[in-house]
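Q: Fold this one first, please.
A: Sequence and structure below.
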Amino acid sequence: MTDEKSRTTIRPAVPNGTQGGTPASRSPAAAIEAFVAQAKSVGSAEPAGRLVFALDATMSRQPTWDLACSLQARMFETAGRIGGLSVQLVYFRGFGECRASNWVRDARSLTALMSRIDCRGGNTQIERVLRHVRSETGRTPISAFVFVGDAMEEHVDALCAIAGEIGLLGVRGFFFQEGADPAAETAFRELARLSRGAYARFDSSAPGELESLLGAVAAYAAGGRRALSALAGPQGDAGRRLLSQMG
């Protein structure tokens, strides 16, 4: 798995104190206040939250992959109203392939990444996803991770051990299941509990449901429980479903 991360260097423009091409008269105190104000403005360019967006990309998942690709903009839109979001795409497919992207800050970049990936046959590799989240958390603060899948073909106890460690690190896991596979539901519910997150099932024929769930997770990643609680208003069914499980 690749663990490469993108880093954006922000170079603040130094105020030159000019007006109309000539130096403006400014006291030292005023200059300091202007510099502090500008520094705060520059600092706000860094997104408030980091979210690992993990998906099963095995062959059966192509329709849902396309759906997630079309809906992921909701995450950035919701988080943008709160403080912004950086997202890392993680996926597995084929024979032992599990990869992680750079961190991206906008829906267009994530769409470009996802559009270059096609689903391929293979078994689930959820353990590798969880190990990556645990490892990545040691390098940079992560607010939450979401996993979207329809099956679990691994040793559930091994997955649970890692999920518990992730929960102790303060990273909540949100597991969204397509379909009604009982083994997947049992595993996903337990993984969500151990990582102190939440579980939900969705139907790919009702795309609005997954869209709302992704938006609710983005709200939490960008602004914590307070932001998720604010989202869970009269129309926030997804937010209420997640909050009710988070304890």
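Q: Good. Now the second chain.
A: Here it is, same layout.
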Amino acid sequence: MISKVTVSEARGVDFIDRVVQLRGWVRTRRDSKGGFSFVELNDGTSLGNIQIIVAQSLPNYETTIKSITAGSSILVEGLVKKSPAQGQATEIEAAKIELIGESDAATYPLQKKGHSLEFLRSIAHLRVRTNTFGAVARIRNTVSYSTHRFFQESGFVYVHTPIITASDCEGAGQMFRVTSLDTDNPPRDNEGKIDYSKDFFGKPSYLTVSGQLNAEAYCIGMGKVYTFGPTFRAENSNTSRHAAEFWMIEPEIAFCELSENMDWAERYLKRLISDVLLERRDDIEFFNRTDSTLIDTLNGVISSQFVRLSYTDAISILEKSDKKFDYKVGWGIDLQSEHERYLTEEHFKSPVILYDYPRTIKPFYMRLNEDGRTVRAMDILVPRVGEIIGGSEREYRLEHLEERLREQNLDIKTYNWYVDLRRYGSVPHSGFGLGLERALMFITGIGNIRDVLPFPRTPNNCDY
């Protein structure tokens, strides 16, 4: 009986001396003088390939096997044998090979050589067939699954929040507009302004920047909820850390104050890293080959007790340091990555949770402290990347929320439903957000967000 297996399974010892069938894509094929061909096959389930030994006695050796090139898709049936070669436990002695899809050797861009990440971005539809992007995809899958396991095991309810919204959660205005109007010739009112009453939703609408506000509505009724979905920012920032479309995980917890929110965020981050190290060890070790401190850094986060430090104390530490920063330090500034990395990598040598930020640099929904100057915000900072999680205790007091909306020149009518939550059974509640891609950059050591997104959306890039 032939067992249908994956490359990952065939590379293990459980299938030795068994006949199996595999399907996948050819990485390389080379011919030996002894009348054999060696085919390296991968199907995406494993960092490593499986070696297929093909004897010239196969009926289609001359007509098919010798025409197989890198990128071709094939079906293989054969016997799994213990491999005498170093670096692989098994190999397959082929009894049958079928060519499923040809690959033009003259034009196939993924040859057996090193390719720069910049070049691979130009062929995003093919780059997942490389070791780097295959590993990123598997780690991304593990982090996503780990997220659901963590929150489901902790009693959270998964909520699907809208992708189209009329509310700007961050109040920054960097949103993509969604419209059914003819943008070349839109209807206009008596003042010459675009008449959005004739639009599909009857008002300006946008792609969401966050599911948080809607999650708050469900948390005040369900207790503990989380969202996990795409978010969008029309921020024309062509940097290694920004993308127009990315994925966010946002839990929201009722009857929860800031210190407990920190506990949840720390546990969640440690769980993600632990699961990746346990379940995708081969992929992490692959990245560790070029970034030799990566695994130590990840283990350091898991074993650390995160330092908890007020923003005010952090500013004092930065001001007293001998470090020369590119961005000037002073109370009231929005900390830059260089400041955050100094705190985690040089001063504390540990992840840090900063809290109680100035009200002037934080959104309207964060609870105002008694000092009137700060809000109950918190950010988790880790080595290498700085901020990886941001959250807060939410402003659940009606009068203070209305004050904060006016302070930031936001129309209370637009947020009427959100304000309504403070009128009917409001409770202290908190939440945080983790950008999936920011976490993947930290976990893999990859320095550009474009390389942890399957199909990155950045300025002037929406090709795939």
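Q: Anything worth noting on the second one?
A: The radius of gyration is 27 Å.
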